[in-house]
Specification:
Order of helices and strands: HEEEHEHEEEEHEEEE
Number of domains: 1
Largest sheet: 10 strands, mixed
Radius of gyration: 24 Å
Number of helices: 4
Distance between the termini: 82 Å
Strand content: 25-35%
Length: 208
């Protein structure tokens, strides 16, 4: 009986030691590779008395709640901020909506090309789109790694017969940063963040 008590006590002791290890298991880090930006806003259309849908306007758009995100984004996202502007024909040629929505990420919970991410920034309208990952590293520290990553991803797409890649995957380098043309209207940019040179911007953008 004493041996059984000792064995049980030893087993309980080991279980107690193991529990902190289970609790300390880190959440999975969200790994991103471009073209995988999240949906951070919700369009709630409005209708007139006749049931006709009204034109898009800022009062029809809201930021998603954290619990509305996909599971991995839900774990990675700290908060979401939406800015919206109703542009009139005098400003843009026709009435339209321009939005900037920023997802602030939990530290250490998301990476792009192995680099830690601070924010997701999505700027959209009918005439342009600029989707950005904001990396928590200076441009000079990330430039070579990002260049290799973008080129290798582009080459992999060229090997896929279902993909249409309109360039030779060679990035253009200038004082402002790196650029890869993806089409006549847009491409990929990598450059220091203007307001914080300790961070790097990876952007997929087009304009009409």
């Amino acid at each position: 009986m004493e041996c059984r008590r000792f064995a049980l006590a030893a087993l309980l002791s080991l279980s107690a030691l193991a529990r902190p290890c289970w609790a300390a298991t880190p959440d999975p880090v969200l790994q991103l590779s471009g073209g995988d930006f999240p949906e951070l806003s919700v369009h709630q259309p409005r209708f007139d008395d006749a049931g006709n849908q009204l034109p898009m306007a800022c009062d029809q758009i809201r930021a998603k709640r954290i619990d509305e995100l996909d599971p991995l984004w839900k774990r990675s996202m700290d908060r979401i901020h939406l800015e919206c502007e109703d542009l009139k024909a005098d400003d843009a040629g026709f009435d339209m909506v321009a939005t900037t929505i920023t997802g602030f990420l939990r530290e250490g919970m998301a990476q792009f090309a192995g680099q830690p991410l601070a924010e997701v920034r999505l700027m959209d309208s009918d005439l342009w789109s600029d989707h950005q990952y904001i990396l928590q590293r200076p441009y000079q520290e990330t430039r070579e790694a990002l260049k290799r990553f973008i080129e290798s991803r582009c080459l992999a797409r060229q090997d896929n017969p279902t993909e249409l890649v309109e360039n030779n995957c060679a990035l253009t380098e200038s004082e402002e940063g790196l650029y890869l043309e993806a089409s006549e209207v847009g491409g990929i940019w990598v450059h220091p963040e203007q307001d914080d040179p300790q961070r790097t911007v990876y952007a997929e953008a087009w304009s009409d």
